[in-house]
Write a structure and sequence with these properties.
It is found in: Membrane. The chain is mostly helical. It has 15 helices and 2 strands.
């Protein structure tokens, strides 16, 4: 059907059909347009968020100076003036995570609804599947950047400490209106996570499952496992990989594959690593290890440190050793 071609059935694991999904060119059909347009409004801001995060330098120098010279009012003011606009950026990132969560829930609703199976949904609604992939791709890129930038938490901690000191001393603070106490608490929890966007998506997916009790949990987990299969097959089959016209599509597929594995592991009762899992974990890890090492270390670390069930007794020794 269109750009989505059935390519392979993985008989040894009886995992059902895998698909070639055209992540580069899928366009919405009439029935997809409403959800597609809602999610598109969110996704069009994603690249700008990543650029802002990539260029986030922090106010480490100004903060150190202010802490070392607590009685120098000019240095205190300089540090505060440096931190306030940065906290404005952090607020924007946090608010974007909330918009992304709403977008994901809309997509999950569309891709898991009856009467179609998740596989049929991915076949019929390629553009929504592509948007789901784009959310996962953004999420892993955001978290990779956040993990390597300790300035974010340092800046925010300094902001909160200074604000509470100002309140005690009844000093009016510009910037207080921007982030009130309740919002600051939520932002603190968000940035305390090693991978805050993934945590947002995991929580949103779990909440989606619990709120839709009439929908079998398998509808959601099968959607994720099918997407993982799609990516793995496209990456390990030269014939399909050669169809990518953009070299970035390989890293896109790798990130999406890892993202759906992590989501599956958080949402599925026994996780992605158990023998009963519908994800071929050995195959997925092998695909990652077949890439140039520098390009996938962050993704392997995401599997090592942000999954839920890797260290369970039900995980085979072979899988554990592959990820060591």
């Amino acid at each position: 059907m269109g750009n989505l071609l059935k390519v392979l059935t993985c008989t040894d694991l009886e995992q059902g059909p895998n698909f070639f999904l055209d992540f580069e060119n899928a366009q919405p059909t009439e029935s997809e347009k409403e959800i597609y347009n809602q999610v598109n409004v969110v996704l069009k801001d994603a690249e700008g968020i990543l650029e802002d995060l990539q260029s986030y330098r922090g106010a480490g120098h100004e903060i150190r100076e202010a802490i070392q010279h607590p009685n120098d009012e000019k240095l205190q003011e300089k540090a505060w003036s440096a931190v306030v606009p940065l906290v404005g950026k952090l607020k924007k990132f946090y608010e974007f995570s909330q918009r992304l969560e709403a977008g994901l829930r809309g997509l999950l609703g569309a891709l898991t609804s009856t009467p179609y199976s998740p596989t049929q949904h991915l076949e019929r609604e390629q553009a929504l599947a592509k948007q789901f992939a784009e959310i996962l791709h953004f999420t892993l890129r955001f978290d990779e950047l956040k993990m390597t930038n300790p300035a974010i938490q340092n800046d925010f901690s300094y902001y909160r400490r200074t604000l509470s000191r100002m309140r005690i001393n009844n000093v009016p603070a510009e910037g207080e209106n921007e982030v009130n106490n309740e919002l600051a608490n939520r932002m603190s929890l968000f940035y305390a996570e090693a991978t805050p966007m993934l945590k947002t998506l995991s929580d949103a997916t779990t909440k989606f499952v619990s709120e839709n009790k009439n929908l079998p949990i398998e509808n959601t987990t099968d959607c994720l496992s099918t997407m993982a299969s799609v990516c793995r097959v496209m990456l390990e089959t030269p014939e399909y990989r050669s169809r990518f016209t953009n070299e970035e599509t390989v890293s896109f597929c790798l990130r999406v594959m890892v993202g759906v594995i992590i989501l599956y592991d958080h949402v599925h009762p026994v996780g992605a690593f158990a023998k009963t899992s519908k994800i071929d974990m050995k195959g997925c890890i092998k695909v990652l290890k077949d890439q140039p090492p520098n390009s996938v270390e962050g993704l392997l670390n995401a599997l090592r440190y942000t999954t839920k069930h890797l260290n369970d007794e039900t995980t085979s020794k072979q899988i554990k050793s592959m990820l060591q």
